[in-house]
Amino acid sequence: MDTNDPVREARLLVEWLRGAAGRYAWSDETDASAPRAPTPAGRPTAAGAGGAAGTTRAPVGAGIGGAAPTAPVPAAAAERDAAAPPGATTPSGGPDPFDALRADADQCRRCRLCETRSTVVFGEGPRRPRLLVVGEAPGADEDATGRPFVGKAGQLLTKMLAAIGLAREDVYIANVLKCRPPDNRPPEPDEVAACRPFLDEQIRLLDPELVLALGNPAAKALLGTDRGITSIRGQLRTLADGRRVLPSFHPSYLLRTPEAKRESWLDLQLVARTLGLSLPSRPSADERDE
Ligand code: SF4
Questions:
Q1: CATH class for domain 6-45+125-288?
Q2: Using an 8 Å Cβ cutoff, are 278 and 165 in contact?
Q3: Claim: this prediction has a pTM higher than 0.85
Q4: Average pLDDT of the residues of the chain
Q5: N or C: which end of the chain has fewer CB within 10 A?
Q6: Sequence ranges of the domains in the chain
Q7: Atom 3 (ligand 1): residue with closest C-alpha?
Q8: What is the pLDDT of residues 39-84, one digit of tens each?
Q9: Would the CB of 110 count as within 6 Å of ligand 1?
Q10: Which one of 117, 120, 184, 192 would you pick to mutate in the ligand 1 pocket, going by the greatest count of ligand atoms within 8 A of its CB?
Q11: Is the CB–ligand 1 distance for residue 111 below 6 Å?
Q12: Sheet of strand 172-175: strand arrangement
């Protein structure tokens, strides 16, 4: 389907703004029973919540600072790792570098947030995602479950992805900070600096085609800019290493500012065009009644 069809785009925009009860429309209301969007053809699907691999790649490095973790992985991480497929090791039999990175994060005490967190929220999704979504930091729901974007903002993110035909499981989802700031306060610069190497390694190992940076902290961390998200959203950037980054509004902001959905929808369409995705067709009446 042609994503440049103005009539079609206008219709989808109207549906988007309405938040109508269509399969790919979204509103601020939680709809946990919404059916999954189709998986784009030719892409490996995600595995478990802990980022268990559908595919693994050749070893490209160890954890932060090159140091392999030595302490045991906490119970929550061990539970997530149980979903990993057999053979998640390097060809030489060593630990998979991504697993090593996650184990390193699970034990991390590099900033003060380790004192107040319940769980390290490393991220989840497939090991070879076309799209990496990066948010700000875990909130209360994420801290309790160890999974990113599972609260109300996360449910909206799932609907936003579905609007361009992506299932949540097709995308890797992470945050700049892996631990929750107390009372959901904004990240401190030294916390971002301490945690940044984890994100850098995630990006390097996941090697996504596009990074969607949601909100100010993510855009600032990834683009090295002090400009606000309102002025830079929707501007596709190519970093020195060739990585493409698109800044956009955080779903939490969209929940507070519904009128910003118009810009958000434009950004999502740019994601679809950048990845060569076809926008899903409008669901039939029968589909809506499913
Ligand atoms: S926020 Fe990042 S740097 Fe700070 S303790 Fe958690 S994992 Fe470590």
A1: alpha beta
A2: yes
A3: no
A4: 77
A5: C
A6: 6-45+125-288
A7: 195
A8: 333 343 333 333 333 333 333 223 333 333 323 333 344 334 333 4
A9: yes
A10: 120
A11: yes
A12: 172-175, 131-135, 210-214, 244-248, 237-238
